[in-house]
Amino acid sequence: MANATAAKSSSIQPRFIRFGDAPGYLGMCRDEFNKTVRPNVREFPIGKQGVAFDRQELDAWADAYIEARAIEKAGSQDNNRPRSERRGDNTWREKRSLASTRKVASGKSTRSTEGSEFERALALVTGKKQSST
Length: 133
Prior knowledge:
There is one protein chain. This protein is mainly α. The protein is built from five helices and three strands, in the order αβααββαα. It has a domain at 12-69. The chain has helices spanning 2-10, 22-26, 30-37, 55-69, 115-126; strands at 16-18, 43-46, 50-54. It has a three-stranded antiparallel sheet. The longest helix has 15 residues, at 55-69. The radius of gyration is 35 Å and the shape is elongated. The mean pLDDT is 78.
């Protein structure tokens, strides 16, 4: 019988929540609690140095916060749709970049670079000074 009483009493949540436990009760860090919650709920002393909050007031704040900030989502939205454009057919392969062409060509560049231009660029990159000659 004593065990049943002990089990029953452990399921009772305290009405007062100490400051050290209040951020965790709402699932946030202490800084966020101080910035977002603390200015909007009453606090009161416990003992000489302790500070506490009313659990019911924290619950009411949380309910109001959820109501004001919740993001509505469409009920019929399929969150498991494919992320790529592939839908079981090969139509996605027909999309080409504007820069690409269907022609395949080979050959060599027709633009020639004079040796001095290349040497100047190489000198700039490697930090070597150009010779005066």
